[in-house]
Amino acid sequence: GDDGAAHGAGDGVVDDVRISDRPLRAEQLLFNSAAVDEHTVGYWKFEAANPYADSSGRGSEIAAQPSAVPPDEPRTTALINLCHVLLNSNEFLYVD
Q1: How far is CA 3 from CA 7, 74, 86, in A?
Q2: 57 — alpha (psi -120 to 50), left (phi > 0) or beta?
Q3: Whose CA is closest to 42, among 12, 16, 14?
Q4: Is the dihedral of CA 81, 83, 85, 87 positive or negative?
Q5: What do you get for the CA distance between the two ends of the chain, in Å?
Q6: Residue 71 vs residues 3, 6, 7: alpha-carbon distances, Å
Q7: Residue 1: per-residue pLDDT
Q8: Which pLDDT tens digits describe the chain residue by residue (96 residues)?
Q9: Coil, strand or helix: which one is 44?
Q10: pLDDT of residue 4
Q11: Which of 86, 92, 70, 56 is nearest to 9 (CA)?
């Protein structure tokens, strides 16, 4: 949720994220299998020693780049909050 501070950012924790270039069967989803195959585009394990390293072997490293949201832009803050809700929702993550 929004704590009312000017930054407007959430502090939720994201575990592993794996992106594939095709739909996956239920047994292939990340909570059932952490396997990496030729269809894996990127795989980030945020609890690893280097949480920004791509574990898929494709070299898609990421970088944290904090950005400030001006407190006088409530629409932007609302959009950020909506994105946090969607990213923390299993219904969003596993829809074909």
Answers
A1: 9, 14, 18
A2: left
A3: 16
A4: negative
A5: 27
A6: 12, 5, 7
A7: 44
A8: 445 555 545 455 677 889 999 999 989 988 888 899 999 999 998 888 888 899 999 998 988 777 775 667 788 888 888 888 877 776 655 554
A9: strand
A10: 57
A11: 70
**Which residue is listed with tokens 């932007």?**
76
The letter for the amino acid at 26 is A
Position 24, amino acid = L
3-state secondary structure at position 28: helix
User: Which residues does 11 contact at the CB level (< 8 Å), separation at least 6?
Assistant: none
Whole-prediction pTM value? 0.56
pLDDT for position 6: 53
